[in-house]
Structures are given as C-alpha cells and as structure tokens.
Amino acid sequence: PDGVAVNDKQYHGACFLCFRCQMPAGRSYFEGSGKIMCNQCVADAQCSVCKQPIGGTAAVELDGRQIHERCFVCGTCGGLLPDNFFPVPDGRMMCSATCAASSAPSGPRPGASTTSGAAPAAAAPSLLPA
C-alpha cells in the first residue's frame, strides 16, 4: 500500500503534501509545527537573516520565514532568543523588555504617544528538525 503514517494517523501517499509546494512529500519528510515539508523544499529554504541555505541545520519558522537557530538572536545584545521574545517596530527581535527598551530611540518623536513600554512578547516560534 502507498501510505504514510504520521503521529498515529494514516495518509494516502498522494494526499500527504508538502505545505510549501503542495507536492507529495514522500516517506522522507520534515515536520515542524504540524507542517510537513518535502526534502526539496527543505533543501531550497534560505535563512531570512543570513540568506544562506537552511539545508539540514536546525531552524526556526517565524511568520512563514525560515531562520537558522544560530541567527535567531537578540537585535541588541546578540543573545539567543527565548521562547517569548519581544518584536520591535523596525522588525528586529529582542530577548527582553530591557533590550527592547534600550533599542528604542531616545525621546519621543513628534506626534508620537508619550506612553512607553515594550511590545508584548511574541508567541513561541516553531522549531524545524535538524
């Protein structure tokens, strides 16, 4: 039979599709956050930070972007990001409210609100297998 078993569920081979290319993923695949990727899409994936291939290295998926674990670092101190990190408006990610606050421009911008505080912690990213 042409079937694939994943997490105690059975799939027809033709129905077991890669979430990126929508082609059958086959029996050798990668799973992260409940999403299935075929070997070709994993090989073609690039880190959105360093622009190097993800390949078989450990990676994080965030908002549809692939990021090497080694590139998933605080924009202020360079430390690895925890599960609950702080995004800032310019797109960088911070490891703590302290780093987020220290990266903010000094003084209010004209017309900006005078209330202060770091952005709320973002949801934990998904880890793709190495």
Description:
This protein is mainly β. It is 9% helix and 24% strand. The protein has helices at residues 39-44, 97-102, and strands at residues 3-6, 9-12, 29-32, 35-38, 59-62, 65-68, 86-87, 93-94, 126-128. The strands form 4 sheets. A 3-stranded antiparallel beta sheet has the order 6-5-9, with no helix packed on it. Strands 1-2 form a two-stranded antiparallel sheet. The protein is elongated. The model is unreliable at 107-121 and 123-130 (pLDDT under 50).
Condensed summary:
With 130 residues, the chain is mainly β. Helices cover 9% and strands 24% of the residues.
Counted by DSSP, the helix tally is: 2
Low-confidence stretches: 107-121, 123-130
> In one word, what is the shape?
elongated
Q: Write down the overall mean pLDDT.
A: 74
* SS content category: mainly beta
The main sheet orders its strands as 6-5-9
- End-to-end distance: 29 Å
> Radius of gyration, rounded?
19 Å
| Largest sheet descriptor | 3 strands, antiparallel
Helix content: under 10%
What order do the SSEs take from the amino end to the carboxyl end, as H and E? Answer: EEEEHEEEEHE
Share in β-strands: 15-25%
Would you count the extended β strands for me? 9
